């Protein structure tokens, strides 16, 4: 496990921009070359004991992160937690896990079979959170997973890595509101996730979010290659609580729609 939060996020970012070439362009577009503050990143996994949310979370807890919130997505059969660092300038972390036992016996057997191929030491290695896929996967198995759960298929194909980074709109020098960020992105030709509307949440729930639809990349399966959705970029604007501090949580109804940024269009 890493012991330096900045090193871990630098590694996660390097992997993420390989998966998401558009993120580098968006970075330039919104930040005008200046540094961009990340509101949060997100990771995905299965709730199988050897790779579950808690296993991923250990990497963040080891560098000072604290468990700060629980979320449940009944229809997608997911649960999630978010973690915060004592230094509020460090990104928050949103980790979700698929409740595998709620799916068909076939999906359960497939997922257990994938995870069983992993080297047991992989999950504590420094690079685990940006190590990608640890198993053989054929195209038919990918497609069978996709038919039941887009999330299951995404994790099966792409494995362990940041599924998105999130620009903190509050910290952008040239933009104030999420609508003008969205407009700038659309003018530059980026496709936004419009599930539930382009802006998820509101000032009333203290968080507004939008995201691009994931980039697409050719992934090698054991018997074929196929272009599939990879990772996306998110934009978040936070509003203050009554005590004047910015809200630091997530909004389940909004998150539910953000997950769909990796759906095929
Ligand atoms: C996470 C979706 C939720 C947010 O900011 O609400 C989320 C995911 O797609 O893995 O990131
Ligand atoms: Ni997010």
TrEMBL record:
Belongs to the 2-oxoadipate dioxygenase/decarboxylase family. It is an enzyme of class 1 (oxidoreductase). Signal peptide: none annotated. It holds the Pfam family HGLS. Keywords: Dioxygenase, Iron, Oxidoreductase. SMART domains: DUF1338. This is 2-oxoadipate dioxygenase/decarboxylase. Its cofactor is Fe(2+).
């Amino acid at each position: 496990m890493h012991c330096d939060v900045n090193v871990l996020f630098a590694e996660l970012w390097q992997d993420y921009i390989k998966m998401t070439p558009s993120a580098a362009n968006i970075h330039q577009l919104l930040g005008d070359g200046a540094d961009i503050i990340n509101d949060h990143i997100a990771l995905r996994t299965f709730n199988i004991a050897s790779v579950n949310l808690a296993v991923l979370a250990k990497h963040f807890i080891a560098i000072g992160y604290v468990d700060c919130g629980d979320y449940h997505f009944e229809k997608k059969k997911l649960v999630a937690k978010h973690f915060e660092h004592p230094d509020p300038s460090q990104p928050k972390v949103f980790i979700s896990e698929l409740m595998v036992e709620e799916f068909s016996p076939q999906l359960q057997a497939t997922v257990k079979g994938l995870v069983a191929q992993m080297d047991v030491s992989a999950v504590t290695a420094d690079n685990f959170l940006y190590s990608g896929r640890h198993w053989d996967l054929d195209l038919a198995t990918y497609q069978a997973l996709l038919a039941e759960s887009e999330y299951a298929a995404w994790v099966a194909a792409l494995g362990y890595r940041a599924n998105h980074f999130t620009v903190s709109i509050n910290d952008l020098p040239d933009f104030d509101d999420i609508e003008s960020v969205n407009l700038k992105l659309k003018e530059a030709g980026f496709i936004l996730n419009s599930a539930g509307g382009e802006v998820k949440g509101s000032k009333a729930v203290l968080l507004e979010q939008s995201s691009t639809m994931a980039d697409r990349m050719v992934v090698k399966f054991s018997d074929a290659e196929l272009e599939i959705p990879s990772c996306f970029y998110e934009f978040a604007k936070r509003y203050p609580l009554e005590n004047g501090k910015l809200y630091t949580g997530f909004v389940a109804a909004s998150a539910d729609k953000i997950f769909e940024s990796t759906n095929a269009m």
